[in-house]
Specification:
This protein has six helices and no strands. The chain is mainly alpha-helical and 149 residues long. The protein has a domain of 99 residues. Helix 2 crosses helix 3, helix 3 crosses helix 4 and helix 4 packs across helix 6. The protein is globular and about 50 Å long. The termini are far apart.
């Protein structure tokens, strides 16, 4: 047993790969986020799924939790990839299919979290920018309000 494992008393996931649940999840995310065309297409799926998820929750008066949303997004990405892979040119994406191996081993929750966290990060950055602009505006107003000698 390693010292770190002994300290945490949590068993390590033997399938973990580069900080991901398993190699298949890591590889699929890597392909989807590294190829610009796949990135844009995947982001479209993410955006549409998030919108549909919120609308569904509102129509049934459900609480739209981040965890459920991430799982829903991950499942939508997997369904899209599974459907699209059948249509893609075998020459162009054969390496991706070979790299990923089996889609059923991809962790939908973790994949969805990776794609929804990116959006949250952008939203957080925008909130920080707005807060900074407000603070700068307030300081500018205070400086103007001071009497000049």
């Amino acid at each position: 047993m390693h010292a770190i494992e002994a300290m945490t008393d949590e068993p390590r996931n033997p399938n973990e790969y580069s900080g991901w649940a398993n190699r298949e999840t890591w590889v699929l995310n890597r392909w989807l986020s590294s190829d610009y065309g796949l990135y844009l297409a995947t982001q479209n799926v993410v955006d549409e799924t998030k919108q549909e998820y919120v609308e569904f929750c509102c129509s049934y008066q459900l609480d739209p939790t981040q965890s459920r949303q991430a799982f829903t997004v991950g499942e939508a990405i997997l369904a899209w990839v599974d459907d699209e892979m059948k249509e893609w040119d075998w020459d162009d994406y054969s390496m991706m299919r070979e790299d990923v191996g089996s889609l059923w081993r991809v962790d939908a929750q973790e994949l969805g979290e990776a794609w929804t966290e990116e959006d949250e990060g952008e939203e957080e950055e925008e909130r920080k920018r707005r807060k900074w602009r407000r603070r700068e505006g307030e300081e500018g107003e205070r400086e103007d309000a001071l009497p000049r000698h």
